[in-house]
């Protein structure tokens, strides 16, 4: 799944993001609005991962949505 689709259907995907990254709050998800870079920053903030590792993790998650 690409990020344009995720951003366009953000309401549908918020629950899936929350399942994957449970430390994110509802306010975090509202702030991200499906934007990849915003989500990377929020995951980094809550989990303390490097930006590259977080970006990779998000991209792998998005790819898995197609399966």
Largest sheet: none
CATH class: Mainly Alpha
Distance between the termini: 9 Å
> Low-confidence stretches at least 5 residues in length (pLDDT < 50)?
none
CATH superfamily, by name, is: YjbJ
Could you say which structural class the secondary elements and strand pairing correspond to? mainly alpha
What is the CATH topology?
Protein Yjbj, Chain: A
One letter per element, helices H and strands E, the order comes to: HHHHH
Estimated helix fraction: over 70%
- What is the CATH architecture descriptor? Orthogonal Bundle
* Beta-strand content: under 5%
Shape: globular
Number of separate strands:
0
Specify Rg, calculated over alpha carbons.
11 Å
Give the overall pLDDT as a whole number. Answer: 94
- What is the domain tally? 1
Tally of DSSP helical segments: 5
Protein name: UPF0337 protein yjbJ
InterPro entries: CsbD (IPR008462), UPF0337_stress_rsp (IPR050423), YjbJ (IPR026042), YjbJ_sf (IPR036629)
Family: Belongs to the UPF0337 (CsbD) family.
Domain CsbD-like: 4-53
Notes on the protein architecture:
InterPro entries: CsbD, UPF0337_stress_rsp, YjbJ, YjbJ_sf. Belongs to the UPF0337 (CsbD) family. This protein is mainly α and 67 residues long. The protein has one domain (3-64): YjbJ (Protein Yjbj, Chain: A, Orthogonal Bundle). Helices cover 75% and strands 0% of the residues. It has 5 helices and no strands. The chain has helices spanning 3-8, 10-20, 26-32, 36-47, 51-64. Helix 3 (26-32) packs antiparallel against helix 4 (36-47) and helix 4 crosses helix 5 (51-64). The longest helix has 14 residues, at 51-64. It is globular and about 25 Å long. The relative contact order is 0.18. The model has no long low-confidence stretch (mean pLDDT 94).
């Amino acid at each position: 799944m690409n990020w344009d689709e995720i951003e366009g259907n953000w309401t549908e995907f918020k629950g899936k993001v929350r399942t994957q990254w449970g430390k994110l709050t509802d306010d975090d998800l509202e702030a991200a609005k499906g934007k990849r870079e915003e989500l990377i920053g929020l995951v980094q903030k809550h989990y303390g991962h490097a930006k590259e590792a977080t970006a990779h993790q998000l991209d792998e998650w998005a790819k898995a949505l197609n399966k």
